[in-house]
Amino acid sequence: MKAKNLSDYLSLRYKIILTPEEDGWGAVIPDLPGCVGGGDTIQEALEMLDDAKQGWFESALAHGDVIPEPRETRV
User: Fold this and answer.
1) What does the pLDDT look like over 21-39, one tens digit per residue?
2) Which parts of the chain are beta strand (E)?
3) Which CATH number fits domain 6-63: 3.30.160.250, 3.30.365.10, 3.30.390.50, 3.40.50.720?
């Protein structure tokens, strides 16, 4: 099995939770501990989260950390 690289992980679809906050919006990827973003608008929060996600993967890959696959959640 070939090891995944950064672009492989960035292409996976992780669950995102958006929450309204006093000064805008918060965004988090529950499967990636500490991967959070925020902004004045939903769009800004998602853009910040995308940046955080890329940094999260880059750090994990550089340190040899385990990167969890997205969990399947169905309602």
Assistant:
1) 999 999 999 999 999 999 9
2) 17-21, 24-28, 36-39
3) 3.30.160.250
